[in-house]
Specification:
Layout: H1 4-14, E1 22-27, H2 32-49, H3 55-66, E2 84-90, H4 123-141, E3 145-146, E4 153-155
Antiparallel strand pairs: 1-2, 2-4, 3-4
Length: 158
């Protein structure tokens, strides 16, 4: 469940999408126990993806992709308070658009502007770059702020 102002603003953002497109929301409000389970899952995945990385670096990666576990925060633009959305775009047929990585990808490819710095892109990468830009433009225009390491994570703190 989203905070009412965040939900209203996401509805406003939808108005700037191409006709009949929509957002697919994976999650918004995350209670403490859900966040804890996600962090545990991410820690296991980081161990698997980065087997030769030091414990310190793995801890930094976990913080980068899962944040800091808190029971309470006053920050309105967080999952803990229903002010952050993990989402993607869907076309007029209800199909998810290609964004270059899966949701909750724990690699540098997940960064919103990852494709912006690449000199040469294949057709799929061009598609991901275009779709990420559409999402970024629409959500920023509506007052959302992106968490740069994750193209899918957008916060509204008003």
């Amino acid at each position: 469940m989203a905070r009412a102002p965040a939900a209203r603003q996401l509805a406003e953002a939808k108005k700037n999408l191409p006709e009949d497109w929509n957002f697919k929301i994976w999650d918004c409000l995350r209670p403490y126990l859900v966040q804890k389970r996600m962090m545990d899952s991410f820690a296991r995945r980081i161990d698997f993806i980065y087997p030769k990385t030091s414990k310190k670096e793995k801890a930094l990666l976990l913080q980068k992709f899962a944040g800091v576990l808190k029971r309470q925060t006053n920050d309105l633009g967080t999952h803990a308070n229903g002010g952050s959305f993990d989402l993607t775009l869907m076309d007029e047929k209800g199909d998810e658009l290609y964004m270059g990585t899966d949701h909750d990808d724990l690699t540098d490819k997940a960064a919103t502007d990852y494709y912006e710095s690449k000199a040469e892109l294949n057709e799929l990468e061009k598609e991901a770059k275009k779709n990420r830009k559409i999402m970024k433009d629409v959500l920023e225009k509506a007052g959302f702020v992106n968490y740069v390491p994750e193209w899918w994570h957008w916060s509204y703190d008003k």
